[in-house]
Amino acid sequence: MGVLGRFLDPQIDDHLLAVEGEIVIDEVRKHWAATAGWYALMALSIPLFAWMVWLGPLFWIGLLLGLTAFLVGAWKVHVAYMDRFVITNMRVFRVHGVFNTHLATMPMSRILDISMTQPWDGLLMGYGHFVFESAAQDQGLRDIRYVGDPKRRDLTIQRVIQLAGLRQTMKVDLWDVDDAAEPDGT
Fold first, then answer.
1. Is residue 180 part of a domain?
2. Which helix (H) or strand (E) holds 74?
3. Residue 44 sits in which domain range?
């Protein structure tokens, strides 16, 4: 697709370590709720364009307001479309930006804690927000907002971390209820 394709698609495959065997487990686009307000702004351009009829010789005011509403809404929708969060077998990364690409990466081994928040409207519409914690003070990948189906995405990340052997597993078959009892009965 060339240069034009770079502005229309974030091209996730360009950021993969294919030689090292990195594969995409999940590519997460922003949930539709992240752009709902911008679509509403684009829809507002229709009555603004219709308002031109009643403005007479000042029709250009309605034209400018309608074009501005439409173009700002379309731009913000495209910016949200270009924002991707990617889970691979080696790391998580976020690519965003239209003209300037920003890439933030965190290896699976550096993820210490993942917090998932679902506000009340996120519970209704099926989105949530992630906060990644690592040992680094300043990190480029911390807040990932408007993630669709956040519970499944969280389980996917936890599963990749576990299958990579980065977390220890307790041997349940070695656990005996009688061993846990203290002499005082607790």
1. no
2. helix 59-81
3. 40-77
